[in-house]
Amino acid sequence: MISDAFAADLSAPVAKAAPVAQAYDWTGFYVGGNVGLATGNSNWTANAATPGVPPVSGSLSMYQSPNAFYESGSWLIGVQGGYNYMLRDRVVLGAEVDATFPTFRDLSGLSTGGITRFTSPTPGAVTYGETMLSSGTVRARIGYAPGNWLFYATGGFAWTYDSQDLAQLGPGIDEPRLLWRLGWAAGAGVDVPIAPHWTVKGEFLWTGFPAQTVSHPLSGQRVASDLSLEQFRLGLNYRFDDPSRPAQFAPSRFVAAMDIFAVHGQATFVDQDYPSFRSPYEGINSLSGGGQNRETFDLTLSTGVKLWQGAEFWVNPEIDQGFGFDDTHGVAGFPSAESYKLGSAYPYARLQRAFMRQTIDLGDDTEKVNDDFYQFAGTRSTDRLVLTVGRFSIVDIFDTNKYANNPKVDFLNWSLINAGTFDYAGDGWGYSYGAAAEWYTGRWTLRAGVFDLSNTPAGGVSPTAYALDPTFQQFEVVGEIEERHDLWGEPGKIKMTGFLSRGRAGNFNDAVALAQATGMSADINAVRSSTSRPGVSLNIEQQVNESLGVFFRAGWADGDIEPWDFTDIDRTVSGGVSINGKSWGRPDDTIGVAGVVNGISSAHIAFFNAGGLGVLVGDGQLTNYSMEKILEAYYCYVLTPSTRLTFDYQFIGNPGYNADRGPANIFAARAHWQF
């Protein structure tokens, strides 16, 4: 028989033992990215092919100081992947592979590279330089994790692909050579978890490459050189086998920070092609009539962190590669917004965005916000003030449109994703330093901002023209008013956007007058002075039903002053439809069809007819002017929730406003992946 006391003990609730916190388990696969700074040097010896000529030698520093306006210098962006296995005594064994790419090289000469001068009796005075195009390693790792921190050493095999150039000063030979270097790597680092599946690391890595000899037969020189590099990296890894998600593991106090940390990634590949078309003549900035095929690729990481109440900081490192048709020339409404004004056959690094956003709530009503590439999930006040400062694209905030704004997933043409007349400030990739303020109140939003212009209007002859003005003396002011409404129960928006660029720009009438006086082709560079260029555009988007949306844009810009940073369009009208695939059982697929008509002023026409060159176009003459007429249609097929395939067609009538040339039929395939 059970006593009452014992029965009472059985019926009493039993206290559960508190879960035992366990240190972080580092076992598993991971992938990630890194950004870093590199230093190094190359010891070289130049031997002349002529017997009896003494060799010349020296040491070349590979370090170039970073420049935030030229986006140049010895900084790198890379990707890595690997596997860790943690033993019972918390010793961690692993292996890692990585590849890194330098910043774009052509704005200030070199990125991770050096250049020197020497004189030899054979070629005379020459310059010798070497630039790293890409590098990578395959390494073993061994470390110890006393808690949630992993301290490790690493070493293994290294490679680099370099460009070596020997050039005679003044008119003469220029002998670039490409070479692979194979060597060794060693380093050390520390890794720490910051959120479920995410770790951040700091790493020092040394790579050394033995001497190699490269022949330059035109100059009669054989150059032997070695190379060593030191890299200082900050990396971010995603761990596929991270066991920290179950609460009972309680891996780290850092996990509590998950709601203040966000990471997104995306990659986009575009291949475009067009067959030959009628082209009785061509100029420097013409779309070639013989047909072309071009591709572009980008790999982008977006990382955000919440700083304090309402404040966020976002950074956007990117690896780019590829070219637009004719180095992005020939059509004012250029057919791929995934190509930039400058391109490269080799992958290169860019820091496209680095900005802070402060949101100040002004009302009690709230709305839900979904997680996005530069946005945290959560709620916000419908009435609010948003301040953004740093490096970003003006069209991240201004002239946005739900149906035609993103060349990674919808229309590709420059003059469809934004108003062609919106000559927004930006470098050769469309990004600028500046500040913007947005005031949301009821159904209205007012926006204003000021931004840095490029060194000279983007039609400049020097690559440095595409870099931003480091003095901020040339700037652009942008304003926008937005009205939100429901039309027959469906949401829509109307926006008016205006801009005023202020700096040294040329007047087309002055350039034509100078050409007539000198008998030379019109040169806008010769008539630049301090002036202003205004413009205004209308932007409408309207949902018709849950499957159909329409959009319309129209714009005007001062046609006497040259465009600065976008393209050669003074008048534009565009419109189109976007249809999702709900009616045929694929609700995430999209069909888009749109048309645009672009034009220029009479002064702009006279300038091109006098042989002038614009930002993107200039055939050497324009005796038969006609407006550009562009039709674009695409089908976006959602392969998986994170992967989309798009097939795109564009008809371009009168490319570069020239009725003597064209039309061009452009076909494209696009693959986009995003998490």
Beta-strand percentage range: over 45%
How are the strands of the largest sheet arranged? Answer: 11-12-13-14-17-18-19-20-21-22-23-24-25-26-27-28
Rg, nearest Å: 29 Å
Number of strands: 28
Mean pLDDT: 89
**Main sheet summary:** 16 strands, antiparallel, barrel
CA(first)-CA(last) distance = 65 Å
Fraction in helix: under 10%
* Sequence stretches where pLDDT stays below 50 over 5 or more residues: 1-20, 245-257
Helices, by number, come to: 4
| SS-based class | mainly beta
The shape is globular
Structure description:
The chain has 4 helices and 28 strands. The chain is mainly beta. The strands form 3 sheets. The protein has a 16-stranded antiparallel β-barrel with strand order 11-12-13-14-17-18-19-20-21-22-23-24-25-26-27-28. An 8-stranded antiparallel barrel has the order 1-3-4-6-7-8-9-10. Strand 8 (174-195) and strand 9 (198-216) form a beta hairpin. The longest helix is centred in the last third of the chain and has 11 residues, at 508-518. It is globular and about 70 Å long. Residues 1-20 and 245-257 have low confidence and may be disordered.
